[in-house]
Amino acid sequence: MAQQQAQVKFTAVKPQLMVKTPKAVDAVNFYKSAFGAVEAGRSACCPPPTAEQNLPNILCAQLELAGCSFVVYNDDSAPYDLHLFLSLLSIFIDEEKIEGIGNQLCLETDDVEAAISKAVTAGAVVEGEVTEGGGTCCGGRVGKVKDSYGYVWLICSPSNKCAPVEA
């Protein structure tokens, strides 16, 4: 007898826009200026940059626009040389054939494990272990799955509140 899968109710979809480090502050300011986005909060870098680095002290910022939220992150996950290589490579590759580049989506749910299980049943592949978010703009518990199109989905427990924005 097959086990019945748990019903999963997602409470939010939060697109996460990854920008090259240290451009997150510039991107946040652009979205506020160009589209009227409102900054709901931000998480600082750990550890904060030194004065010599001349980098803004931001890891991510949550913005609200038209009743929806999205998060802007500094993307320091790949070295500059890799970003440069991929940019040069894109000259020779049909971009329509490249799937899932530059996007990451965060789904919030009260049952992270059940949601991951359901995604895997549908064909996604688990990436890493479910972890505690550690103060990021995503939730307290975070798991990752990758769909067959190359997009990474973060499955998170409801968001931690980002620190209030100082005027």
TrEMBL record:
All residue ranges annotated as the Glyoxalase At5g48480-like C-terminal domain in the record: 105-154
Any matching Pfam family: At5g48480-like_N
Domain Glyoxalase At5g48480-like N-terminal: 16-72
Gene3D superfamilies: 2,3-Dihydroxybiphenyl 1,2-Dioxygenase, domain 1
InterPro entries reported in the protein's UniProt record: At5g48480-like_C, At5g48480-like_N, Glyas_Bleomycin-R_OHBP_Dase
Protein name (record): VOC domain-containing protein
Organism per entry: Gossypium anomalum
